[in-house]
Prior knowledge:
This protein is mainly beta. It has strands at about 25-30, 35, 45-50, 55, 60-65, 70-75, 80-90, 100, 105-110, 115, 125-130, 130, 140-145, 145-155, 160, 165-170. Strands 9, 11, 12, 14, 15 and 16 form a six-stranded mixed beta sheet that branches. It starts with about 25 loop residues before the first strand and ends with a strand.
Amino acid sequence: xxxxxxxxxxxxxxxxxxxxxxxxxxxxxxxxxxxxxxxxxxxxxxxxxxxxxxxxxxxxxxxxxxxxxxxxxxxxxxxxxxxxxxxxxxxxxxxxxxxxxxxxxxxxxxxxxxxxxxxxxxxxxxxxxxxxxxxxxxxxxxxxxxxxxxxxxxxxxxxxxxxxxxxxxxxxxx
Length: 174
């Protein structure tokens, strides 16, 4: 009859929430690339973005990035729950290395000419005819041998460059 009550136990499951995160360099030098990586789980799906724009075909747990921007990854579990992580990647310009001579590069045997690299770098390494000059790691170098001098410089964030045009020193006999 009337008044019969039915009851049933209902179990509610809380689906696990994906916890998105991104690992990888946040500064790279011009011409370099870096992998941005999120935690892998075979049941998750991934979608990468740059500057809030979906990157077509970027559906893996990692992304090779080489352009400055805000990179994000949307991680979705099989239940449709998703989480997003964002990092900013900065591509720093290559340094501009140059050399100026303090005087004539046409010198007499036994003399030197001071070669000065431009300032603003944390390391300098001088080369003669493409070979490392041991101990020559200052901004200035006293050149006394004939040949082509170049310098490699490094910025505070690790970007490196060398001079495009070597400075040619000519040594004349006495």
